[in-house]
Specification:
CATH class: Alpha Beta
Shape: globular
CATH topology: SMI1/KNR4-like
Strand order of the largest sheet: 3-4-5-6-7-8
Order of helices and strands: HEHEEEHEEEEHHH
């Protein structure tokens, strides 16, 4: 991974940790490490590998966002395993190409494709055989999530039309054109 890409991961991780600490009612301990943590896994590459090398936490990190709650999973979390989600029959998961790094409060999974150094982010829903590409890279996804969370904050009961317009603007601003349609399909379900 290039130095520039690694710096982008580092920058967004610092922002995400700060967002977590500012928006979560009872935050779990989490910290950023300038020193690379020793992560032992042959399945990890690219941005997701850099992510786990620089962020220290041992419990799930629940983000308090009313419209798109994500839960970041620690490296050794049982919830990262394919068995937790009955995905053993999906070749890309069983062979380690797809690596789960987060879930949502509605039991969707967020995962990265390890065949690409940029670690593009996808979402999957229970009972839905389709996967939705949400970003071209982990950094892009986290930048979008940071902007999304800051835009909507703790607002509840946002009218659907306002949510669609506001979130659509954020998608078009922060996500690559190639993923905007699937990101909208996923977030506007």
């Amino acid at each position: 991974m290039t130095t520039e890409r690694n710096m982008a991961v580092v920058t967004v991780l610092k922002k995400i940790i700060k967002l977590y600490e500012e928006t979560t009612f009872i935050p779990q301990p989490v910290s950023f490490s300038n020193e690379k943590l020793r992560i032992q896994s042959s399945d990890f590459t690219g941005e997701l590998f850099a992510y786990y090398q620089h962020i220290e936490f041992d419990k799930d990190l629940f983000f308090a966002n009313q419209n798109f709650n994500i839960v970041l999973l620690p490296f050794d979390s049982p919830a990262r395993t394919v068995e937790s989600w009955a995905l053993q029959d999906v070749l890309q998961f069983s062979e380690g190409q797809y690596q789960i790094f987060a879930t949502t409060d509605t039991d969707d999974i967020l995962f990265c494709d390890m065949k690409d150094e940029s670690s593009p982010v996808y979402a999957g829903r229970p009972g839905d055989p389709n996967f939705y590409k949400l970003s071209e890279s982990l950094t892009e996804f986290l930048e979008f999530y940071f902007a999304f969370s800051n835009f909507w904050k703790q607002r509840e009961d946002v009218p659907l039309e306002e949510y669609i317009v506001g979130t659509g603007d954020l998608i078009e601003r922060y996500l690559s054109p190639d993923v905007q349609a699937t990101a909208k399909e996923y977030l506007f379900r």
